[in-house]
């Protein structure tokens, strides 16, 4: 049987219209600690309409204010916020240790038309075996919602939190005019009556309740909780209600509250006035407050105030305005004029200094631009037409902004060559900016460098890092490349945690893509290019482990009528072609040898040189060839590949590596042959293992660089046919971050 259905509020609208006269001297102004203000009242003629009638019971120990003829206790009335605080009943559902019901009630509340349940309330349920509902009505619509609270004697209950452990809560729907509460138990609090014998549910002002773990045991005797009601006058909006001047309550010194969205309307005092907006708003004497805002004299006026200054001062007199300023004497005028003149001279001198400094900087940048071959590069670009793939010439300011003034945190690589910075261009492209060390350049080297920039910027191969452009306004040129995010191949095969992710099929694909890129540089580009420093450190990987050949600082362009170049030996120990080291004759087979060492690193996971190995095994190429000859290939393969036997694909790749490492260049295959054989091995692996992903670019049969550049001239002498900027490529940059 449901008990305590005590909160029914029924309004009889059949008698009395809105009060047209108010004799405040005959009306109760308070009841206990609650102030009674119009439109509320307890006697005839003291309230606006029956909706706002209250009743003060003075027969109790303490006078108590009730809502109309109901038992609803009013704790506070506010005409400024349009709110009423009442005491609402709590729903209980209690059991003893034998699961017998001790208490169960489903209280409800029904409001009259001028009142709504405030959204500042929350529906709260307390208990460890509890589900509770609130069945609310909004106009002609009704909605049932609720929450579940559970816990055990071992649960960690957080005081102040109603997230479902010991306590749960939900928001109150806007416009709710009535509701019924229900608190229930899943298992009649079986085995937990000593810590929580009851389920409780109630609507409460969110500022008046903070959950505590003690509520689980001691809330049974709490019968009521404070909650807020919103109220307004009638059901008409301001625009409609003010047409009837006899009943419209927003009169002199008050106005309709435009921030209230209805139903009905509310009044508020005009700015500068205070009091009850439904009866009388009186002027605020701002000057009576010590913080009125005037510096000297404060003068109160209806709805506002003004400030004035003492004799001998002028201004608006306000602290936040122009204040009060002493009237100027001739001496003060002279002092102010002198100071102003001095400030103007200082500003002019500073402007002049900055202008001269800027001009000198511009002259210096123009000097560097010409010195670094900027004019020549512009001629090359204009001579080839405005192709989308031509090198872009960046200004020093653009790259300074891109690297945040070459901030140290942007450094992603350092070496003998110089420093590499991560940058963000104005179009939000991520780039790698190479800043070389200062070195003297000859006119011939500058011309070679410009030729190389133009050629390399036109290379558009999916496995070659794109050269976007350069900056020639600095003492040494800056090169701008596309940014590759996943670090170098060396990072992945020589790092124990990363190498697990580089499975054999991924390694084979990386090798195939690298071979394809080098083959393109050797034979498909308009001017053949020998990389001269092929190694895992110069093979970058994107997030999908797609290989990108990078670092062309040591590369040489080969004239079409020459097969080899005589150069100063340059590269990295362990990857250098032995024939090239002895003869200084650079050919495309020098890259083939270096690529063979890369294949061996992919197979073994070992470093090319290691003093931790025995003396006869320190060189990885020697160790690999020896193991292959002795039939001990399995023993040198990378343990991360987790092989019990050697697959045919690995044997084939090992034989390719062996051919690449021949001492004589003529006995080595070309990069084109290597690329075709690796693609064949990868294709057969895909056929045998469908899960192996191949990203080979079978459809890429054309590249953007299809025509030789007409304005390049190369001498017949092998020593003069190079187009590299040698001073910028004396050493190899080692990356110190994952990106580039």
TrEMBL record:
GO terms for molecular function: ATP binding; calcium ion binding; polysaccharide binding; protein serine/threonine kinase activity. Gene3D superfamilies: Laminin, Phosphorylase Kinase, domain 1, Transferase(Phosphotransferase) domain 1. SMART domains: EGF, EGF_CA, S_TKc. Disulfide bonds join 250-267. It comes from the Eukaryota. GO terms for cellular component: plasma membrane. The keyword Repeat applies. The keyword Glycoprotein applies. Pfam families: EGF_CA, GUB_WAK_bind, Pkinase. Residues 406-692 form the Protein kinase domain. Serine/threonine-protein kinase that may function as a signaling receptor of extracellular matrix component. Binding to pectin may have significance in the control of cell expansion, morphogenesis and development. This is Serine/threonine-protein kinase, active site protein. It comes from Artemisia annua (Sweet wormwood).
